[in-house]
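Collaborator request, handled under Task 6.
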Amino acid sequence: MSPPIPRRRNRRNWKANWKSCRREFDEIENQIRTASPKYAALTAAQPVSLADIQQKVLDDHTALLEYSLGNDQSYLWVVTRSGVALFKLPARSTIEKLATDFRAQLIPSKLQRRIVGIDVVADQQRGIGVATGTRRSEHFDRCCQRSLQGGPSNRLQG
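Structure tokens returned to the collaborator:
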């Protein structure tokens, strides 16, 4: 039986081995990036700042919407070229129901049965709710309008 290797020597060997592996990994990654600029662009992408989005991505007629759905309440961030607003929205379950109902109005009745997750009773008044004025779309419209009007209960200051 051979004598045990001292801990320091083990640690030094481990560190040296780790550094060697890290160096080899970096070399291989550099080779891949050099061979594939598209890969390099994907893996070396940097987050874009809010100012960059407002100046370089958005125009005067475009808004960026980002949302977060929560069990009790949800939030919507609206970024335009000139500002940012945060709105309080209903709970996830309410939004999912409204979105499912709205989506069902957009899909022709013949195709509805083929799409998983949309369970809609046949309705003779098909079409986009805004145009037909159906009860579901009116509810969806009211909910969106209340949330986006920026009233004191929905628009958050900050």
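The cover message to the collaborator said: "Strands lie at 64-68, 74-80, 83-89, 155-156. The chain is about 50% helix and 15% strand. Please let us know whether this matches your experimental observations."
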